[in-house]
Amino acid sequence: MKIIRIGCLLTVLLPLLLSCQRFFPQRYLVSARVTHFSIVGREGDLNFPMIAQIKDIDAITKDIDEAEYYYKKLSSVYQFKSFVYQQSDKIDTILTKQSLENPLSFSRLTHSPIPVAVELTGIDDQRIRFIVRSQSTGAKKLEYPVEILSGKSASVGILHDTARLGGTLVVISVWIMKVDHRTTSTELVRLLEEKNSVRGSLHSHPRFIASDQRIIDQVLGVGKYQLPMETFESPQIQHKNLAEVDIPTTQELDEMPRIVGGMASLTSHLYYPASARRDNVGGKVLISIMIDTSGNIVEKRVLRSVRNDIDSMALKALDSIRFTQPRVKGHSVRVWVTLPIAFQLNK
Fold it and tell me: Are 306 and 237 a contacting pair, CB within 8 Å?
């Protein structure tokens, strides 16, 4: 009789439990970052990242540091001759498995020889599933399924120029956490700090960004916990406000300008200032330059300074180089790009 009663009870409770799961599904905090690079394996000169889509100084620094990290990490795999940053996209949101019944598109690269889209398709406690969609030069649609563990990265190389081994490299990094009424502020802060860190960076970056507070409010409730929004800048680094230097903040190019002769052409004109060497000072200068339709530099502005002697040497070296023509829809255009120039003393 007891067995019958238990069976009847389960028959009643099971639909209720399934109904609760439907109306109160498990939530996940998902943070994902996608970075697109243009790569060439043959007949190219080595070019390090330049940024044409300017946001703010911290964002530029973060993009460049990340690009240089991936260049060093993946160059042995892909054997780059040319490696140029194109764009980064990110998503920080709360999702459920049910919300991904239809793929969630959050990164599209349209200013490229072939379009690339990244879609989030599935999620569980430890990993996220994506599809990278593209097409070959023959218009054949291509799909690359990718499954990534939380805290890890994966890369997908898409070839569209077989003669030069040219293509697009897509790098995806993800973080995931189950969230419910038991989730603590300590757990959330730890994940947010981790996803905001820049792999391989020697620079200090903000521990939190403005959108992180929205996530905290969604999980814990509005006003339950306030993130400290302090930033970390080295006292020797000076940043300029983009509004002060009158540089456009959004630009999309079909063809990024490249230094004629590659980075070797620039570094051949760089000399370490004796005064900086004597004082054991180094760093990375960020310089925004306007490139005209012929590939000439017509204007230069320091966005992030190290100090005057190093800045001056970086500006002087730029007088000796030219760029390939920046293009939009086949037409040459004038464009601002930001170029990092590093000065590092050999230990």
Answer: yes
